[in-house]
Write a structure and sequence with these properties.
heterodimer; A: 830 residues; alpha+beta; 4-stranded antiparallel β-sheet; 11% strand; B: 448 residues; alpha/beta; 7-stranded mixed β-sheet; 13 strands; globular
Amino acid sequence: MIDVRARARTRCAQAAVKLALLVPVSLLLAACGPSREQVAAAQRATLERYCFDCHDDGERTADLSLESLDAGDVVADAAVWERVVRKLESGLMPPHDGGPRPTAAEASAVLAWLEGELDRSAEQEPNPGRTVPFHRLNRNEYRNAVRDLLALDVDVSALLPGDDASYGFDNIAGVLKLSPTLLERYLAAADKLSRLAVGTAAPFVSIDSFHVPDDRSQERRLPDMPFGTRGGLRIDYTFPEDGEYVFSAALARDLNEGMPAYPEPQVLEIAIDRQRVAIFTLAAANLLPSRPEDADDFGGRMNRRVAREEQQARNRADEDWSVRVPVKAGQREVTVTFLDKAASLVTGKREPFLRPFPRGLNIPEGRYGSYLRRVEIRGPYAAAGAGHTASRERVLVCRPAGAEARVTPESEACARQIFATLVRRAYRRPVQDADVAPFVGFYRQAHEEAGSFESGIQVALKALLVSPEFLFRVERDPPGAAPGSVYRLGDVELASRLSFFLWSSIPDDELLRAAERGALGNARELERQVRRMIADPRADAFVANFAGQWLYLRNLDAVIPVQSVFPNFDDTLREGLRRETELFFASVLREDRSVLDLLNADYTFVNERVARHYGLPNIKGSHFRRVQLPADSPRRGVLGHGSLLAVTSHADRTSPVVRGHWVLENLLGAEPPAPPANVPPLDATGLTDGNGKMLSLRERLAAHRANPTCASCHASMDSVGFALEGFDATGRWRTIDELGMPIESAGVFPDGTAFADLDEFRAALLQSERFRTTLAEKLLVYALGRGLEHYDMPAVRAIVRDAAVKGHRFSELILGVVESTPFRMRRAAP
Amino acid sequence: MIVTKRALPRRTFLKGGGAAIGLPLLDAMVPAFAADAPPVKRIGFVYLPNGVAKNFTGIDYWTPKSEGELTELSTILAPLAPYRDRLTVITGLAQTAAEANAEDGATGDHTKATAAWLTGVRCKRTEGADIECGVSADQIAAEVLGRETVLPSLELSIDLSVLAGMCDSAYSCVYLNTLSWSSPTTPNPSENNPRVVFERLFGNGGTTAQRAALARQNKSILDFVGQDFARLTRELGPADRVQVDEYLAAVREVERRIETVAALGDAAGLPALERPPGIPEVFGDHVELMFELMWLAFKADLTRVVTFMLGRELNFRTYPEIGLTQGHHTMSHHQERPENIERYAKLNTYQTDLFAGFLSRLASTADGDGTLLDRSLFLYGASLSNPNLHAHFDLPLCVVGGPAGSGGRIVAEPANTPMPNLLVALLDRVGVPVEAIGNSTGSVNLAA
């Protein structure tokens, strides 16, 4: 794509470079050439020439007149000028309607002038904006905070509702509110989590049920499962107490809810921490000979039958597949999986990954072996106390000696010590006696009531987990701050911003200590902390939450391609595609590569399943490994990832519209214009033209765009989306489309840059500053938990500019965000 | 004062997800009714996402062919045949607050449709903190009907997973995820996990004494949370206090709920309950289980106001169990083709089938001198008519419930009558008269 600024900058910078090597670029640009007034007058003349036709006081197209603005005082109308910058920079204005357009040099001169003025003003008078004072932790952050505070990793999605998203992310402060219902849920969650952490008995037996996704293939060993097994389920389960637990398993049924018949026995193993606790066997079926005409690609196996009585018995085979065993408290890995005695030779043409058929259709069972449907864990029965768990180690930093029926000075001192430690971490700040006192109060009362020290601790911990300063990140204006004034955040607040940005969690002890001693003001120490945090495994949360939402990975669960068109898509592939993108994004992050690699890396991560999907040879096994892509591979960067391609498709076909929309919004930061009122219906003539000739998707969309009202949006969305047409709705490479028409991936960017194919498309994206800017914007939204305003744009430009000097390295982008005005500063309440 | 009497069967089974749930002691908690109680005192709103199978050029699987008396039902409404004499189909209503206007164009049609359904208010186009809609009809009802129940209202849904970046043209996802707004800036989150609903309704189990102790404990923790919010308020400037006031109101509301439970005392006692294990895999099982919980909540008088979304606008769920393998939203854009509309009707009929199953439970459950259905009223329908056009007029809506003989009609309102007129009429039927809701201009005459 045309990068209108690059040339001007180079030219200008070359002239000025000898003068002042260390002057910031914005000043450099301003220092180049005639006086400010002359520049403003000249640029206004350019605007008048190309923009005033529509945007003068008379026309006011889109309610915008540039005529009345004072070009000598750009800052006075910063909001409007930032819009002008964006429209010019992305080449959307002036419109491509045959009217006069500025030359690249003219456009870049206007941009250099506007950005120079805006950025200089931002440097002189920073405007960091104001984050809301109460920022509730979202569900992911809550889970991670509990994990880091209590050494307790519990899937809280069953305990708390999901959070609404805005600006593309679900950590936006303004949307994260507290309703009565949510508060009730926090209370219930705190009750459960505090019991799990301390190990105090719940008043009831809990039941947890785990379903295997219907379309997960269980023909082969799954990632993270023991060798010599196939299919099944792995559950990381937190056992609240030492005691006995009941594990039960149910097998998947066939289309008629009958137990499928297999010629070999099917053996299911339940293991805890890889120690077998039970084995259940579904006996081999007594198969009646199949009719000769039933012999087919599937080895003639499918249509064999069993006698009616035997079938009835089989249907009840797993009725009593349950076992009660003692388990020690704490988090343990429960695996329920089939023993793969002899990996049978696949004789059919069909891939063994085929997902099961839906219920209700008269298609015979086609699996090679039994599938697991559901596992249930109940308990504890005969509970035998708290046992030893990591959480108890973490929480109970001291224990009172001797009898503990009543509160003693010693036990109270111990409780005080426990909560002095916990409250500091939970509140992410140094604490006073007054902060700890309420929890000691809860402890005292509950200890007296229950006659147990640990019950007292549990109740106080429960209160801590619903306390406002735990559930909310609170940012206070410094005492005496003038209303509306701008101030630098304290180190303690900064530590929280850092940890929620990079870890989606609370600061660890090292970060909090650094903040407490005021070390984060030191740029070198701040950078050291950021790099340490990126390297830390907790930064996986950044990959899951930032990349998961930016790249729509979270939507993969909802991707269910029509199986008659895409019979090979199943849950194993879905998880594989997700894993690929996560590993890839993490590698760009952790290896500190250029963010351009996100679009252009010559490597990716695959296992056998994904490799087969992509047509990459010689990859065996379920583990993921890094592979070098062939030089001519279309899969370079995320645009070749099946995950992204699938989530931007319809169930039965690709959608250039959705893909184009994604590229515009998430890579180019250009929100497609809003559709006008009274959108007419889609053309009902559908698939053929007037002469009965089949139309390709491209032709159908072209017909759609022939209508001017549709064209206003679709012209840009569709033609960008065509670049990815070489990938089908599940991300496989293809040369013909759903209708057998040859793929054409030529198209045009909104700024008029044409591309002939995917390679040219990618090359244009890589050249465009819009991609780097958009990524910086997304990072800043995610880091701040608020949408961006016009006064944030100088910060965005600074982030991009500074990172460019250092090869667009990911860490430089993150450091740029961390050092930016809106991240480091805040405006006091008005 | 709630008088209790024994009316529930000793053992009730919830089906769903393959698990049977025993409710051994539920029978202790069915309240008797005062003689002067209004005949209908429960209200439910059941929402169909993505419109229904119809177009404006002659194909309509929703609207019955009858005029005046409801002699003939349509394909989609056929499952409601057993309740024909308490079914009223209303035609001609429009959701003008969701229609395109000069400001926001035709963007966010699905979002505006959801947000306006029970509010009659055009939601504010924003993705930010400044979300704004209107108080919804269910919450107006809950103000009155919910005073004596554990939960003033219950908000249920099927799809809840929020899709990253996939919400509607610069509208916050909040608008798509619930029908219920307790204030113009406070959406009530809906819940799709049967187990969580169950726990909200019946607590976590345990003995009466244990639950009483837990209630006391929660109460004192909430006191602390309230005080702590107040402390933080003092540290903040006045401009920031508004937000905290909202949270304090939330704290007080939860305290009130706990007190209500405590006041019910043994009546709410459900020792050794077993809970549903989670979200069933199949849509139909999931919906049935949620309806079952709704039935239980009505039966035990734990709430009298429910909203239930049988899916979220724009969802891409497939329904392989009835042979529909295209995404819901995709199917709804039927491209005006008869075969596509017919296929979509199959889904709408399936939805009505599930709803009818629930009505049959209500009709066979005694409540005072009559049945639960006699004393419950439901709005059933969608906020888009022809989904291919995102049409906000000629909405598919019907009211079912109340005493036998209270319906059996088609009420033809003049074209483009504001849909909230019907909400006004509904609230009147349950003894909560209101002047207006959203952009209503009057009331629909539902009287037979």
